[in-house]
Amino acid sequence: MADVRLIEGGFDPAAELAAFTAAHPESGGIVSFLGQVRLGGGVEALELKHYAPLTLPGMAALADTIRQRWVLEGLLLLHRSGVMLPGDPIVLVAAAARHRRDAFQAADFAMDHLKSESWFWKREKTARGWRWIDPRPEDRRDLSRW
Amino acid sequence: MARLVFLGRLEDAAGAPERVVEPGPLADVLARLDPALAIELLGERVRMALNGRLLSESGDVVLAEGDELAFLPPVSGG
User: Between chains, do A118 and B74 touch, taking CB under 8 Å as contact?
Assistant: First the structure.
């Protein structure tokens, strides 16, 4: 089954992935993606805001779509909300499958959709203060791959 | 009373994450706001959710007592 969580504090990606892997011994392949706050560009902090009535239900709907499209033994979608510092994990996606192709594609699809369709709004703090980040055209293009 | 919720940069435009307003037709609710904010809220790329449900059309929204209307600018997550 899918494990979908919106996390308002921190999380330990290695521990999460270890637990997910241990829970799916029958899977021959597990593909994971970890997104973290990038160091550089003068960014001191990043904040992701969400809207509770939509954000987690939207992530759960994405998980349903993925499980209908690929044959998976397990699916993990973890996403942070709140204030993060460079190096902090933002998102962890993992897909466990009998065969690696399904796992690669499911994780890739999950990230493209989380980046461009999930209900999160991002702002960055630099020495000049907080600034909202606009959606990137690349994220829309990534969606069109599917 | 009803509540308006402002996400993303709309929070800055509104000066607060949410605002309590008199119920009624959306046009009347918006007419009582700062015109500059109302224009932003009606932006082409701003979507709305009434009590957690996305609206496909905003034309006929009437806010009832206890309703929550969220204004959702384009997302920039992940």
Answer: no
Would the CA dihedral through A107, A111, A113, A118 be positive or negative?
positive
Q: In the predicted model, is pLDDT for residue B78 greater than 80?
A: no
CA separation for the pair A1, A127 (Å, rounded) = 44
For residue A123, what pLDDT is reported? 95
Q: Taking CB atoms and an 8 Å cutoff, what residues of chain B touch A125?
A: none
pTM: predicted TM-score of the whole model, two decimal places: 0.92
Distance from CA of B18 to the nearest CA of A (A): 12
CATH for A2-129, options being 2.40.37.10, 3.90.1170.40, 3.40.710.10, 3.90.1300.10: 3.90.1170.40
Asked if residue B6 has pLDDT above 80, the reply is yes
